[in-house]
């Protein structure tokens, strides 16, 4: 019944999207696509979204000014296109600056909070060296914080205030997709002119996805119990659990797709275990602490991001399909030998982890982490070291934006011959997003607070009521 209702609602939303495309109303198209994606429904409208964005990319290609469009529309178009893998030059914002070198924003909608929020969200899709977007972020952040201070002493727009606080807490581009969908469903209800078919479809989709996650959780729990009861010896348990798990996953990939992924999985695990061993040696009092560079070269592996992503790649249907056997072998080799795809999200994972856990680790006498290594090497204060880690996280995101969001098969992407699918690239970005959610307010993994528990419950246990 729910699936039939979802199909009916999907058809209605598709009809609306097609009508906007026919009318060539770029703002309506962009706002609808943005709502679809924020509500967690992008997979249902892939062909329609691609058709719409292909047309918009063609129109924008070569255009370096805002023309007569609002800042909101330009910034929204910039963000939506970039986050879907299309190249758009930062020069579309040139009308906002006095000259390209200074990149100082002028007027043009400074008082319009929606403009500033759209500009702020767009700025997080920046690449290395894009000074215009760096300045745009600084300016938009200042204006949005001023708005929050002003609205606290007046009866202003509460819905806009909620959106602004949400983005300033964790930028939209860095938010987990399903948790963002859970939050945005509630925010979308309050939006003027909200599409009820889209809203109801989002509720159904979330509840159906939550049901699948609950089933996965039950299977995982049952597997753990069975293994523990049948393998009483500690070392034997660890070895056999690892050995059997890898082989079981390898068997599934071989059976379903005809690929032997076991060598790649074991290589990823071996690399992480070696990194664990190196960290254990560094923890010894007899061993000199590593430099910051030495620590990070090992820590991006030990944080487990590479293992997670290799497993993800080996079990994505569109990566290991029967139609792409040679393609997948090429990509697997490239994945293992060219570590950028694994490195940048893992660096974000590691630095977010260390920012959240380093104080407790230092108090326990565990002094090998990014904060302490940087402090020891440079002699700066802990506060300065933390700010530097946040800067490195921003830089890693810029590399991901450029190295991942441009690597698609879209006609207008300058790197359209890459071997990875959009699904896998999105998985690498999602790993970085999970890192922000897990460690944004502390160690939600090792010492979860009430807020992190509430987020998990909203994702896994509490359905959305009609």
From TrEMBL:
Its cofactor is Mg(2+). Gene3D superfamilies: Farnesyl Diphosphate Synthase (1.10.600.10), Terpene synthase, N-terminal domain (1.50.10.130). GO terms for molecular function: magnesium ion binding; terpene synthase activity. GO terms for biological process: terpenoid biosynthetic process. Keywords: Magnesium, Metal-binding. It holds the Pfam family Terpene_synth. Residues 8-168 form the Terpene synthase N-terminal domain. Residues 221-398 form the Terpene synthase metal-binding domain. PANTHER family: OS04G0344100 PROTEIN-RELATED, TERPENE SYNTHASE 12-RELATED. This is Uncharacterized protein.
